[in-house]
Amino acid sequence: MRAKLAGLILLASASALVAQPNVGEPEGYRTENYRAPVPATLVGARVVTTAEAGAIWRAKTGIFIDVLPRPPKPKDLPAGTIWRDKPRFDIPGSVWLPDTGYGKLAPATEDYLQRGVARVSNGNKAALLIIYCQADCWMSWNAAKRVLSYGYSNVAWYPEGTDGWEHANLPLSEAQPEPRPDEQMPSERRTDTLLR
Fold this sequence. Notes:
This protein is an alpha/beta fold and about 200 residues long.
């Protein structure tokens, strides 16, 4: 009897952890508290599960776009301190367009997103684009919504992101951000710059 009761308590606890509040879609973009429960939908986009994202990835029928921000460099580092970004591991073959999921984008960042999506899709507005970051992260929701506004018609939002991918024991690979127009290509950067 005690074992059954303990099992029921564990099951109820696990269910409470999985249960998400019903979050509605905002009118515009989310502009604060980006790490919070996300909606189950995105009007105009297909929402994909980890199983569906994995099938698309294995079949190579979609383009995966990671929008997780780069970690900011601390402002109070002493002069001469070497800064190394925390490595980002994403879905192999993805294009990483960091900082493009904020609710408000500077014109240069919006241009970076538009050019990056146009490049990876070869300008094909019907190409399947799977946009993600991490679980409970509004960055991917915002970016997918923004890409829809550019006229892309086959946008998929993967809300579980790399957290869901890793939990399913699918492979991850270290990523380098897509260079911005004012940056050199990763292969052209000096080695010490790559180690930041």
